[in-house]
Write a structure and sequence with these properties.
By secondary structure, the chain is α/β, with parallel strands linked by helices. 31% of the residues lie in helices and 28% in strands. It has a six-stranded mixed beta sheet with strand order 6-7-8-3-9-10, sandwiched between helices. It is globular, with a radius of gyration of 21 Å.
Length: 304
């Protein structure tokens, strides 16, 4: 078997009545056993790309090969090798949690006995024991997200593609998601592709990252390699007191995470003067540390 899970060549998708492509001549290889993260602003083309990869969206041009074969020549090849978790889904929504996980495993080729064992394992892994007999349609947003993850992982297909896997989850469960995905990759060699906005959390497990902008990858590679261009910068995160609004130097890349929380990317040589200039001793709190994957994303997202 080839050591390349996905091979994407010159992929284009133009939606009807639009002139700008949603994916614009994308070329990409994802290796077997790799954890690949996709970052980008809303509308960058991330979801369009992964929907093309699982054959839910026909491409305008270009080719996608899965384990060496074009997906359009054998559509069943995708469903038997690749699990996909969309941002939202009503699949199996009328079933109880335990039933939904069982049928997901059984439909992917497991025997009834194996599917029952897999159901119990997934329910335990994704902390769904308390709701196993509850209708899927009556779950909270966070519980529904955990069920979607259980459905995607049930049957242990070699490739899993996840669109925003930690949406709707509290910090404890977000950490749990990354821990489970890391373990699945390490123990079973699962190839994992995911879209996320949680860049800092994703950095814990990702092998390579692609940053999308206007339908193209503006950066592609291991985070450590990509961050070399930011080695002479620091990340300064500030929590402000209510009503406080320091003057942020216009030449410094920054973004507001909330009305009272701002993140700046600062050249190392400017850090001492900036700390004094911003009078951070009057703020509620601040942190200064080396550049993260989120800083890398912001750097490339703001670069034309």
């Amino acid at each position: 078997m080839t050591d390349i899970a996905y091979e994407i060549q010159d992929l284009v998708k133009v939606y009807p009545n639009q002139t700008e492509p949603a994916t614009d001549h994308v070329s990409l290889e994802i290796r077997v056993g790799e954890v690949f993260g996709i970052l980008g602003d809303n509308g960058a083309g991330k979801t369009t790309l992964v929907r093309q990869m699982v054959n839910l969206l026909r491409s305008t041009s270009g080719e996608i090969r899965l384990f060496g074969k074009p997906i359009q020549e054998d559509p069943m090849r995708v469903s038997m090798t690749t699990a996909f978790m969309p941002q939202s889904s009503m699949a199996l929504n009328r079933l109880k949690v335990s039933e939904a996980v069982y049928f997901a495993a059984h439909l992917r080729g497991m025997s009834r006995k194996e599917a029952a064992q897999e159901r119990d394992s997934m329910i335990d892994t994704w902390k769904l024991e308390e709701v196993r007999d509850k209708s899927s349609s009556h779950l909270s947003g966070g519980q529904r997200r955990l069920l979607q993850l259980a459905l995607a992982m049930a049957g242990r297909l070699p490739v899993v593609i996840l669109d925003e896997p930690t949406n709707d989850l509290d910090p404890v469960n977000r950490n749990h998601v990354w821990d489970v995905l890391r373990k699945s990759n390490a123990e079973h060699g699962t190839t994992i592709v995911f879209i996320t906005h949680d860049a800092i959390e994703a950095e814990r497990i990702v092998h390579r990252v692609g940053i999308m902008k206007r339908g193209r990858f503006t950066a592609l590679g291991p985070p450590a390699e990509l961050k070399r261009g930011l080695q002479d910068h620091m990340r300064l995160e500030v929590w402000l007191a209510p009503g406080e609004a320091p003057a942020i130097p216009l030449d410094l890349p920054h973004h507001w995470k909330s009305p009272d929380n701002v993140v700046l990317t600062v050249p190392r040589e400017r850090v001492p003067s900036l700390l004094s200039e911003l009078r951070l001793h009057e703020s509620i709190d601040y942190k200064l540390y080396s550049a993260t994957l989120e800083d890398l994303y912001l750097h490339y997202a703001n670069t034309d």
